[in-house]
Design a protein that fits this description.
Helix content is 30%, strand content 24%. It has 449 residues and is of the alpha+beta class. The protein has two domains: 2-66 and 201-419, no CATH class; 80-192, Rossmann fold (3-Layer(aba) Sandwich), CATH 3.40.50. The N and C termini lie far apart (45 Å).
Amino acid sequence: MVSFFLNLSKERIITRYCHLHPMVNRAKLEEVLDYECKYFLWSGADLINATSATGKRQMVILENNSCPSGQKSMPLLDDNKEDGSYRLLIERTFKPLLKKKKEKEKEGRLGLIYDKNFMETSGYAAVIADVMQEEVLLIPYYKGENNQHIKVENDWIYVKQEGDWVRLRAAFRYVTQKPWNRLPLQCKTKLLNPIVACLAGGRNKMVAAKAYDIYNAELHPHGLKINIPETIWDVSREEIPLWVQKLGGQAVIKIPYSNAGQGVYTIISEKELDSFMDLDMEYQRFIVQSLIGNYNWSSTSSAGKFYHVGTIPTAKGETYVTDLRLMVSSTKNGIKPLCVYSRRAAEPLADQITSGSDSWSMLGTNLSIKHAENEWGSDTNRLMLMDRRDFNKLGLGLDDLVEAYIQTVLSTIAIDKMCKNLYNSKGKFRMRLFKSLNDDSTLLDEIML
């Protein structure tokens, strides 16, 4: 089924989606799927298969990521093409990016800069070298370390090789931890993705929520919408208990600039809220969202709320929360899907909340485990692949995959449009506008212009 979905033509997807959603304007959906991104060229959305109290099913966007993992977790569609969708991304999106460079900017080496996920990033480096027929420098760039092998000079990135500084004309970027404090916004080295994609929503949940809201206003007359939980942004630490109370005592609190499952706190009890409020926080602004939980947990009106569909029950009758990561990239023919995988929570959903309930173990799906500052692991026991063993447990159908794709495309476009708004007509970053969107002095001090 996943293979069939990934091979569906754009026209068939549009026809099917409009058939199921008669209020959708076909011309607008065609425009959406034909959209070519300028900045946010490669993305991976995390989605939840959710239902409402009335049983209406929807794919809900949790976040969209600017350096998404997932290629190594995708089974090959063709056993004879071992590069899989690694090659699709490089040929469709990275290679055309290099062709757009001016003649004077074509000198220099190719690099891949990373701060985690060596297995996947080394795979990308190998495929880039194969596609471009030249050596690719694989460059670690960890946050907080003494990185004497890499520097930025005159907005170009340089790497030390055998004692000499070598200029990078382009780089595949897999720098996920505060990339804006090491790589410049105004960068002459072509980056996939550029840093603005992170600040405009790919690594900034605060601005992403505003980008979705702005784009939804444009989409509304055409019957389309980015589905997100109810979101309150620009929340100070002192306000958090008030907003959690307003949401019925159950909520998700997010540090807007964290990733890999860090900085996300699910709250289902006073005890969990008190534990959160006792933590030391680096940033000054937060996001509070309505919780996607179990229908039986509802303590307030269920109108407008989302609930987890979860896995098909196990032999013991247990249902697990799962998410879906769908990766896409921008091409000259629109935004196309690359790969998909799923992750499940550590513990099954409980029917009732008790004093000892651990909400994160039931609701948290991210596999990343942080051992130390720059040391990461992955709980692969909770990885669910798109193969015959795992897929049927997810309870997903072809229309769910199409819906996930549409939601991923819409959220990607929203962030790309925000990127465009953050530059003026002369190509300069509009810091004053960004500050008005995200007035967090700690974050603003970190940005490398």
